[in-house]
Design brief:
The chain has four helices and five strands, in the order H-H-E-H-E-E-E-E-H. Strand 2 and strand 3 form a beta hairpin.
């Protein structure tokens, strides 16, 4: 037991010595990244799965409440699809792979410039049951897992962008973002 606590203490000291610091609070310059995350407006995303994703992003970006005036806007386009994997003799599927791809961009509102863009993809699967309710619940669970994964990835990438020194942030080429939302 004593060896375990000494090992944990050593790990904490090593992480501190290598420059490790949490991005979203604690020793992160009084939560500077969390403060910047709170200045991002999450634009509406179409369809029901997009609504779920937007709600997850809002929960991840804002610790207290939504900003009254945003400095950045996060635009996300979510595309989904299904593919039957395990085909039975009667041509019905017993396993389905659900695919979700989110294309996102972070726009600096005052200048209209896209400062960060990328794609995130999730491919959860689910079993199709003889019972319709079980299949429906499995499908919804796969959808929720995929959207949860993509939301976490987008939040992490935006947080990493804000954690960089402003002089070290990559400059994207191209002009201002279009005023219309995807």
């Amino acid at each position: 037991m004593r060896g375990l606590s000494c090992g944990a203490l050593g790990l904490v000291l090593l992480l501190g010595a290598c420059g490790f610091r949490p991005m979203m609070g604690g020793d992160s310059t009084d939560g500077a990244v969390a403060g910047k995350m709170a200045t991002v407006e999450v634009a509406e995303i179409k369809d029901r799965s997009g609504q779920k994703m937007r709600n997850l992003l809002i929960d991840r970006f804002y610790q207290d409440r939504r900003p009254s005036s945003a400095e950045y806007r996060l635009d996300v386009v979510l595309t989904t699809g299904e593919q039957s994997l395990a085909i039975e003799k009667d041509a019905s599927a017993s396993r389905v792979q659900w695919t979700a791809t989110a294309t996102y961009r972070l726009v600096h509102i005052p200048t209209g410039k896209v400062v960060l863009q990328g794609n995130s993809r999730a491919v959860p699967g689910y079993n199709v049951s003889y019972y319709q309710w079980a299949s429906f619940v499995s499908q919804e669970n796969a959808l929720d897992r995929g959207i949860d994964y993509i939301s976490d990835e987008i939040r992490t990438r935006v947080a990493l962008y804000f954690a960089r020194d402003p002089d070290q942030r990559p400059a994207l080429t191209g002009g201002p973002a279009k005023a219309s939302r995807p």
